[in-house]
Design goal:
Order of helices and strands: EEEEEEEEEEE
Number of strands: 11
Helix content: under 10%
Largest sheet: 7 strands, mixed
Structural class: mainly beta
Shape: globular
């Protein structure tokens, strides 16, 4: 059974960089042909896909967030990490990591991140 768990600070100050890590167990992040995504849900809004890092290590980001987003991985720890720079209060959301194959089949429980001074 694949499990994903997000971790990171629950509060970030405006203009700083948000950094979250997703730890995966029960499966390798390098296994063909899985894509490991970050998704968020602002309060009162729908889900927003942020980007992914593929089994190969390639990345793809949402055009609206691309300039501020970086997703990397540590294969030795079976983890992948989101960095979102220059955050504003509009980046306040529940952040999820998820695995995509033919759909998003496994999700973390989500972690609340609040951008506030």
């Amino acid at each position: 059974q694949v499990q994903l768990q997000e971790s990171g600070p629950g509060q970030v100050k405006p203009s700083q960089t948000l950094s979250l890590t997703c730890t995966v167990s029960g499966g390798s992040i390098t296994t063909n042909y899985y894509y490991w995504s970050w998704i968020r849900q602002p309060p009162g809004k729908g889900l927003e896909w942020i980007g992914y890092i593929a089994y190969s290590g390639s990345t793809l980001y949402s055009p609206s967030l691309k300039s501020r987003t970086s997703i990397s991985r540590d294969t030795s720890k079976n983890q992948f990490t989101l960095q979102l720079s220059s955050v504003t209060p509009e980046d306040t959301a529940v952040y999820y990591c998820a695995r995509y194959y033919t759909d998003f089949d496994y999700w973390g429980q989500g972690t609340q991140v609040t951008v506030s001074s």
